[in-house]
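Notes taken during the Thursday session

The instructor put the following on the board and asked us to keep it in front of us for the whole hour. The protein is Pectin lyase-like superfamily protein. We were told not to look anything up and to reason only from what is written here. First, the residues (480 in total):
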Amino acid sequence: MEFLWINPLKAQVKILSLVVVVVALLSQRGVECRKAKILNSFEYNALSCRAHSASITDFGGVGDGKTSNTKAFHDAINQLSQHAGDGGAQLYVPAGKWLTGSFSLISHFTLYLHKDAVLLASQDMNEWPVIKPLPSYGRGRDAAAGRYTSLIFGTNLTDVIVTGDNGTIDGQGAFWWQNFHKGKLKYTRPYLIEIMYSDGIQISNLTLLNSPSWNVHPVYSSNILVQGITIIAPVTSPNTDGINPDSCTNTRIEDCYIVSGDDCVAVKSGWDEYGIAFGMPTKQLAIRRLTCISPYSATIALGSEMSGGIQDVRAEDITAIHTESGVRIKTAVGRGGFVKDIYVRKMTMHTMKWAFWMTGNYGSHADNHYDPKALPVIQGINYRDIVAENVSMAARLEGISGDPFTGICISNVTITMAAKAKKVPWTCTDIQGMTSGVHPPPCDLLPDQGPEKITACDFPTESLPIDTVQLKKCTYIHYL
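Then, after some discussion, the predicted C-alpha cells were revealed:
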C-alpha cells in the first residue's frame, strides 16, 4: 500500500490563502451591499407591474424648475424601451420641479410622479413638435393647420400608465391662453396628456394644473381607466376641458375633481364630414363620482364633435357646483352621427343656469364642406334620481326641425328654482319623450306618466368590461 505524504507547512499556507480569498470576497460583497442602499421605495396600484425601474435622475434629469429635461425624458424612455418585451419598465420622477417639453411614451411602460414632483411644461415653443390634425377632425381646433404635440404623448401603444402619489403636471397655460386670445398661434394648443390608437391605458392619482387646452385626451383607443385625477384651471381659461374620451371604447372615469374653463367631461367622436368618414364612435363609457365646477360650461357634455357617434354612456354619483349645465347634448345639422343610450342617475346640482340642456343648433363647423343633409340621431336619453337647487332654468331642450330628439325619459327629479329664475322653467322644441315625478312640471312634449312610472327611465344592470379590470399592487425600489 502506498501513502500520500502532505507537507503540513504547505497545507497551512493553502488554507490561510483560501481564508484570505473568502474574507476578501465577503468584504467586497459588503461594499456592494453598502453601495446598493435603497434611496426610495413605495407601492402603488396599477393595471400592470414592471420588472425594470429607473429614475429620471439616472439620465441627467435636474429638478430645479429651470433646466430643460426634455432630452433626459427622451433618453430615459428610449433606454427603457429595451425592456418592453422583458417585463416592461417604470420611470420614476422624484420630488422637484422638472421643466420639460413634449415627450412620447412607449408600450409596457409606467411613468410615476412622486407626491412632491411637478412636471413644468416648457414655454419654449421649439420643444413642442407640430403634428398633423386628427383625421376625424380634419383640422386643428384652434387653427386649420396642425397641432402642437401634447406634453405627454403616445400613439400605437399597449399597456401604458401615467400615475403617481398625486404628483403634479403644470401646463403653465397662461402663456398659451394669451397667445390664443391674441390670435398669434399658427397651430392648435397642446394638451397635457394625449394617448392615440392605443389599448390598455391608465391615468390616475395626479393633479393637473393650467393646461394650455384640454387636459386628458384618449383618442381612437380602448380599455381606459382614468381615476383619482384633480384638474384645476381658471374658470375663464379657454377650452381647458377636463377629460375628453374621443372615439374610445370601454372607458372608466371615476373619483375625479375638476374646476375648469370648459366642460368637465366632454365625450366626442369627430367633427362633421371628417368624423362621419372616420366612423369610430365613443361607446361603453362609465363616469362615476365626479365633482365639477365650471360656471361657463357643462358637467358632462356629449358633443359637439359627435359625428362618429356616442352610445352607451353611464353616469352616476355626480356632483355639480356653480356649473352652467348638468348634462348637455350639443349637435347640429351637418354633424350626422348619433347620441343614444345615455343613462344618468344620482346627480346632485347646486347653483346652475340649466339642469338639462340639449341643443341641435350648435353651429361651429370644421369648414364649409359639411353635408347639410347629415342629420344627427338623438334618442334614448335617460335621467333619473336627480336633485338640483338654486337653478335659473330647469331645462332647455331644443331638437332639430324635421329631426326631433326622441326617447327622452326623465323621472324622480326635483329642481328648486333660484329666486330670480326664469318665469318659464322649461322650454322644449322638436323633442319627444315622457316624465314621471318631475318638479317643476315639465313641458307638454314630455307628458307626466304618473307616479307608477317613477322608475321607468333605464339604467343598465350589467357591468361594462372595464368594470371587471382589477388593479395590481406594484412596487418601485430605487437603489443608490
